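Support case: user asked for a sample of complex input and structure output to validate their parser. Sending the pair below.
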Amino acid sequence: MSKSKYNTVDPTDLCEQYGADTFRMYEMFLGPVEASKPWDTKGIEGVHRFLRKLWRLFFDEQKGPIWTSSAPSPLERAGGKATDAELKILHRTIKKIEEDTERFSFNTAVSTFMICVNELADARCHKKEVLEKLLILLTPYAPHIAEELWNKLGNEGSVLDASYPAFNPALLVESSKEYPVSINGKLRTNINLALDLDQKQVEEAVLQNEVVQKWLEGKPPKKIIFVKNKMINVVI
Amino acid sequence: MEYDFRKIEQEWQKKWKENKVYKVSNQSDKPKYYVLDMFPYPSGAGLHVGHPLGYIASDIYSRYKRLKGFNVLHPMGFDSFGLPAEQYALETGQHPAVTTEKNIATFKSQLDKIGFCYDWDREVKTSEPGFYKWTQWLFLQLFNSYFCNTQKKARPISDLIKKYETKGTKNFTADQWNAFSKKEQEDILMNRRLAFSAFGEVNWCEALGTVLANDEVVNGVSERGGHPVEKRKMRQWFLRITSYADRLLEGLETVDFSESMKEMQRNWIGKSEGAEMDFEIKGAGKKLRVYTTRPDTIFGVDFMVVAPEHEIVSQITSAQQKPAIDDYLKYVKSRSERERLAEAKTITGCFTGAYAINPFDGREIPVWIAEYVLAGYGTGAIMAVPCGDQRDFSFAKHFNIPISNIIGSHYNGEEANPTKDAVLENSGFLNGLLMKDAIGIAINKIEELGIGKRKVNYRMRDAGFSRQRYWGEPFPIVWKDEVAIPLDEKELPLQLPHVDKYGPGPSGEGPLANLTDWVQPDNLPPASAGGRRETSTMPGYAGSSWYFLRYMDPHNDQTFCDRKASDYWNQVDLYIGGTEHAVGHLLYSRMWTKVMYDLGMIGFDEPYKKLLNQGMIQGSSRFLFKLIPKVEVKSGIENNFSSAQILASLTPFIYISKTLADQSLKDKMK
């Protein structure tokens, strides 16, 4: 309804140059929707690169489709089930996108998508069961690319008719921890231990460790201090 | 395989359209959700990057809600009546209907390229006869209703007529009413109708021969041509929004608007409680009625200020002061209301030569006129207490009026102190009382002495509802013997006739007055035969006051919106738009909704459950000062953005929002 002097850039030109999905996400990325802001197209390339990166989780420019499925159709490549780490990336994203969208914090949602795609790329995750859910989350923000990839994955109909992925909090619960292990207060190594171990089980595991054994030189330690979820200190 | 976004986006937009993916049904087992954007005025410039910010946000939320299992209504349309199209027509001779249609086509193609999920089958355009038929119909409902002060709601005017016919009222008996002429009865009813006609001030430009909107007047001259503009009284239409002041305030407690938005509406309504009291004018046999929120300061009154337009001015001005007063009145006539209120720095005023008598101590108080007091607010006269009000203080200093101190050490002689916590001195029967306690005691005393009464006052005035323009809804009204006769529903829509010239009509009327055949047609029904059509048109906010209901049932030609449809879709769950409509469109549409609710036409009395105000986007980087702090940016964004880029996109909001908010308020609404 209103009109001001300086914002006369035609959105159609930007849609033509970068695509509507890039334009949509970039306008949101500019900042909180309630805030006033200057228009500046400098960052639009970055958003565009993000969508290309998303595309490359599904397709390789030379090889074509690269997604894998644990129950592949004849045309799909077979792959393993999603690992805990991959599911963790996905479910962290589901949680954050849902929270951000509900409170109209669209700019932070856009950066959450960027983080998610970077993490999946780093993990070389091309698994359909993860990617498919990500597409549903992305639909409100970048509907065209989401529809296209949804369709390419072999789904019938519009991705808008899919149901929103349910967030599973159990997947975000840490089951183990990388404990720092000190000898006489000085950090010497790390040990990955399950979180539900008691003092005795921890002591056994620590004494098995090569680095600790080297420092002990065959003698028994005076004391092993164990603070759950924090640290381990071996006193000799 | 490459990401060929151009091909992908084109294909999907085509598919969405062909398969009507975004078609929404009024029948569904799913819960409903209604997301609405403030619809755009289709200006010739087309969509710019500022528009889509809100549209993208609402589109994201709509799609999200659909994925979450809701039946989502997310429509779009055009607020297509309005001044710019008419001004463009004046300049180029192109008919507004033609340019508007062209502009809408441009807007739609631009919107579609961004991939919004609108159900275009529900598109509304306020300038289409199929839409404005119902705007006219709703106007008739407002015309045929009054506000019942007992039930605090709108009721059919026929109820009031029945009461007058059978019981009468405190001003006349039933027999007297029945003996009144048709004109007398209609004049009385006009004072109660929710849409009513009365004489109101307009900006008249003699050189252009036309009435100008407030926006078209700058520093007392016309924006076009720089010709002088003066106030003139003309018959106008108004909405009695003041009757709804309390309900509009109470309703704010039930909606999810930002606190600043609520505060803007509260200030606009401007409710205050105080007293109305009469001051004798010395030797004139006249009384001056003032309204004050601070009757506790009655002993600190050092002068009175009356609005220049007040009818008492000519009756009390002394012969000696007459020339000065006449000069001052001439000056005030050239000033717009906005200018009079806004320019606090320049102090102007003129002494009338008359004195009012303080009813409590008999003191003589000089009576002045000054432009900052408006005739329409309160009684058009105020009592000035310089030690407690800064504007009164500046006025007294400027004109060397002696200042009385009634608050002892709380007043330092250098500025006013508006406190309510001081103990009163030099205040007769109020001496020794805390000011806030004295307010009620003073009002009781005023009532006891019979010189005034307790009174609630509002700053808001009834809303002007007519424009001397072409490109708007014609009024379904015929004037006959100075009585406004409504058209029958069956005659709606009263189509806006085609004109070739957009210039004003004679004597300040709108362009429609030039169409003599249309103004005085031969085929009027018996009740209005021989009458003359109303030639002004409705303002830009008429259609937008109810459009959100039409989306629910856009093709209905039997009613504005079937009750089943409005019961199903109910309130707008999320309304997105700019803050510039805080006290215009948002208040008007809230009022219309309340009237429709009172009359049983819809089942809710607030139109918008939640309001989200998007910010402005400015296309200039001049606001990006080099204030970017050194902050380490973590997370995966690094791969795509340099930290400077991210900060460039985030930091401006911290410090530019004020500038932009100020600027946006100044922007023309349409």
